[in-house]
Model the fold of this input.
Amino acid sequence: MKLNFYLATKNPNKLREVRQILNDTGISVLPCPGSVVFPEETGKTFEENALMKARYLKSILGDENVVGEDSGLSVEKLNGLPGVLSARFAGGDCDDGENINKLLGLLRDCGNVEDRKAEFVTVVAFAGPMEERIFRGTVKGFITFSPRGNGGFGYDPVFEIHGKGKTFAELSAVEKNKLSHRAVAFRKLVDYMIKGYNKQI
Done:
């Protein structure tokens, strides 16, 4: 049986990255239908938002496997911000650059690396015909003093991975997809789908 799921996102960067992560697993990642308009994310946690997206798309697609995903950056000194607001930290219509500028501005007086500790988080919510499951992936690091690198998206240019000496934006896609928070969470999903899930149950 061929395994697949629809990814509940309209973000082409996320779709591309998840497909790259799952490239050698035999699991197909299908795009969200273009006509779908997701409601505003109102969850207070990554788990709530990921489940909300999965359940909404599943209500449209019926018995299909659906995966919702929510990711964000959590900065210790900022009490977990930007958190679930990561994508719209600088406002509703902001872009990655504006989000990064706001973050760096808030940390302007934090000259010590210990005061710039951060964690990238991804939560994956699987909604199948029979059950829902949650998978979580994290990567620890710190916020750099200025952007570095041209790869990735979001906060990748200002997140240096603990022990690597590089930001996510300084890694190749192959390197990033071996150790990113998104890769950790989706590999857990892969293990579940391949080893423990059968759509025909």
Notes: The beta strands are 3-7, 27-30, 66-75, 117-127, 132-143, 159-161.
